[in-house]
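Readers of this paper often ask what the protein records in our data store actually look like. Such a record has a labelled line for the sequence and another for the backbone structure tokens. Nothing more is needed to write down the fold, since each code stands for a local backbone conformation. The record that follows is passed on verbatim for readers who wish to inspect the format.
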Amino acid sequence: KDGNKYLDFSSQLACVNLGYGNKRVIEAIKEALEKISYLSAGYVNEIRAEASEALFSILPPKFQRYMASSSGSEANEDALKIIRTYKFPKYKVMTRYWSYHGNTAGAISITGDPRRISVEYHTNVRGTVFMPDPDPYRCPFKGIADPYECAMAVVEYIKYMIENEGNIAAIIFETVTGTNKPLVPPKEFYREIRRIADKNDIILMFDEVMSGWGRTGKWFAFEHFDVVPDVITTAKGATSSYYPLGLTILSKDISEYFENNFLPVGHTYAYNLAGLAAMKAVIEEYKEKKILDNAAKMGRYLGEELKGLMDRHKSVGYVGGVGLFWALEIVKNRETKEPFNRKIDKILRKPLMTARIANKLRELGVLQTMYWISHFIIAPPLIVTEEDIDLGIGAFDEALKIADVEVVG
């Protein structure tokens, strides 16, 4: 209304991957609603058939069926029900301490970050086993500084947990961590996890709600690791968030099991036509405009520019990521890695240094919606240009001075 223009440097919540006003996607939604406004999940029509064909064209042949809901939370909720039904009587799932899988009862129960802590006493679904994160900057195992060694230590921890817990039905990862700082483990990490899952008859599930749909420069982040999971959940970029849609994608083995067994999921808005039409349009746009190529190319440029910020600002302790999915972590002391804020500060609603910096960025014309206790998630739309990145980096150069003056050591 006031005529100000802003550069969105995080695609809102890492979801508006095609930017704003994409005509192909908007028209697809309009046409779908004009053709038939609603059709319950038990029916097939042209929109659903074509959207399904488009989806499976970008997936490994291992996947043969999917459930469609309205959000990433619902997609993960459906996945939990499916996994626990398929693996019964096994019911436990392993997930990371610094993870986020959604806000519904099951999804928040497998979430490790502070949002779980505030509700778990009254909204908790049993059967979650938490494991440490392969964080290359803050390894949870004392005395380990090398990122590869840290990742392998997590692998050994997982082996130990499986041996001693029993009844593990699934291991769940955000392939590249989302809200809690994009972490990119070494390739061997997921290869080892895949071997462990196969050896112990455990489902491997990747949550690609945030990391999917080109965010890392490939259709899905697991493609970077040459590992294929058994279940994929995704949402956000599936429609560039122009319309609600969540997907729970199942392997052939799991799909075939439910041909003769009860499938305990279903939603009024399952397989909603406008969402599926939007997804098909998104896939067409990616292919025609070579969106993945741009995400990979601009991601390399963005990464170098973010590392430049680390060279220029003593408050930047860590930069890491892949494609257009990067973390920038701020610290009060580089040597000790002391943060400006801690987990409890978020729960108690204390002022965050990251919030102060984000407010300054907005004053400078850059929207940095995604920030957490000590880090920012840099995730611009996949159509971003070098000029856009330069503008965002320039704003960060100015805003980070707020933290620089409070650095000690």
Observations:
- The chain has two domains: 7-18+290-404, 23-289.
